[in-house]
Design a protein that fits this description.
With 355 residues, the chain is of the alpha+beta class. The protein folds into two domains: 210 residues, Sandwich (Jelly Rolls); 97 residues, PDZ domain (Pdz3 Domain), CATH 2.30.42.10. The protein contains five helices and 21 strands. The strands form five sheets. It has a seven-stranded mixed sheet. The longest helix is centred in the middle third of the chain and has 20 residues. It is globular, with a radius of gyration of 21 Å. The N terminus is likely disordered. Bound molecules: 2-oxoglutaric acid and fe (ii) ion. The site of fe (ii) ion (FE2) has 5 residues, from loops.
Length: 355
């Protein structure tokens, strides 16, 4: 499948009044120790390289300026040297702590982090974070993975906190993204012990403060437990528009979060094709095609929406969610056909959409 919903899926709050909320059990992985071998395949990208990528993608005359790195490297590190950069990392942490009410463990399921949305950081830090991520990190990812910058966009970005007394680490998982980055905001020499990101097959990578670790979302990785102090990271999930769809209205371009929608579908058949990647740890139905003029299309369902389930209302007070989470394609088909055969009238489809 060209696009799958794997690993960590951002999720908004459960719908109110639902008897079975769309939240799965968190799993925190075992505390393991891994070290990167001395010759680990890690590419280092510096500020000059980043500038050259920006140039190469904005002016065709400079195309040959693009630096080629080892395309097989699993992990890339982006370094920016400026002192401003380091004071900004500190500002981002301070902003997050000044908005301490914004910490939540409900934004991601299966592998939840203790986090807050980057865009919501107060005192102008949210805007600055988006600026930095757009102007520095995205070009670095484009260069590291040799992928066109103009096709990259953010699916989610958040500031996460790890502490021995709270959430010390994050178990082994893959992300539901084409590329992921995590930027260390804390100073490892003074702020915390432990930490770092274990990435298969490189091992434990422990960047310096201000460095950005970049990898494909599909590689297995783990946020290693902090044993002392606090470790703050800016994490982003980046997607690539790799197929040129004519029905793509570009609404995901500035995506930073997902929303859960309750869409009324007046009648069956739905007129859409969906896919389930049965090899993934999380399975949910992704819309692959919506027939123009079909009931799903008329109801507002769009290509790449993630179908989470059907909400059946027997009465106001008696709502029941048939969840698609963890189901195979056959099982989802069966559930939909079963609801269709009962002729219940309009049904509510629960849809997760990047906004
Ligand atoms: O904190 C880390 O090192 C990894 C974070 C991560 O993998 C995630 O938030 O998806
Ligand atoms: Fe991750």
């Amino acid at each position: 499948l060209s696009r799958t919903a794997t690993g960590r899926l951002p999720l908004t709050l459960p719908l109110s009044g639902l008897s079975s909320p769309l939240v799965l059990d968190p799993i925190l992985g075992a505390n393991r120790e891994f070290r990167a071998p001395a010759d680990a395949d890690i590419n280092v990208i510096n500020q000059n390289d980043i500038d050259s990528v920006v140039l190469a993608t904005t002016t065709s005359a400079n195309e040959n300026k693009r630096t080629k790195y080892n395309a097989n490297a699993k992990v890339h590190i982006c370094r920016t040297a400026s002192a401003l950069h380091h004071s900004w990392c500190r500002e981002a942490i301070d902003a997050a702590e000044s908005a301490s009410n914004n910490w939540s463990t409900g934004r991601h399921h299966l592998y939840p982090t203790t986090d807050q949305p980057a865009a919501d950081l107060p005192n102008g830090v949210g805007e600055a974070t988006l600026d930095f991520a757009t102007n520095v990190i995205l070009p670095a990812i484009a260069m590291a993975f040799d992928t066109p910058l103009e096709r990259l966009y953010f699916k989610d970005m958040f500031l996460a906190k790890y502490e021995p007394t709270g959430q010390p680490g994050l178990g082994r998982h893959t992300d539901g993204s084409a590329f992921s980055f995590n930027m260390l905001l804390s100073d490892p020499s003074t702020d915390f012990d432990g930490g770092g990101t274990w990435i298969e097959p490189v091992g434990l990578v422990q960047p310096n403060g201000g460095e950005v670790l970049m990898h494909r979302g599909s590689v297995l990785h783990e946020g290693c437990p902090v044993t002392k102090g606090s470790r703050y990271v800016l994490v982003g999930f980046v997607q690539s528009d790799d197929d040129d769809d004519d029905d793509d209205d570009g609404y995901r371009k500035s995506a930073l979060a997902s929303q859960l929608l309750q869409i009324t579908i007046p009648s069956f058949p739905l007129g859409m094709i969906f896919e389930v990647d049965e090899g993934d740890k999380i399975k949910c139905a992704m819309v692959a095609h919506v027939e123009k003029g079909g009931t799903a299309s008329e109801a507002g369902i769009k290509k790449r929406d993630c179908l989470r389930g059907i909400l059946l209302s027997h009465a106001e007070s008696d709502q029941h969610l048939l969840t698609f989470d963890g189901k195979t394609l056959d099982q989802v088909m069966e559930m939909i056909l079963d609801v269709a055969s009962k002729d219940l009238g309009p049904v509510q489809m629960i849809v997760e959409r990047w906004c």
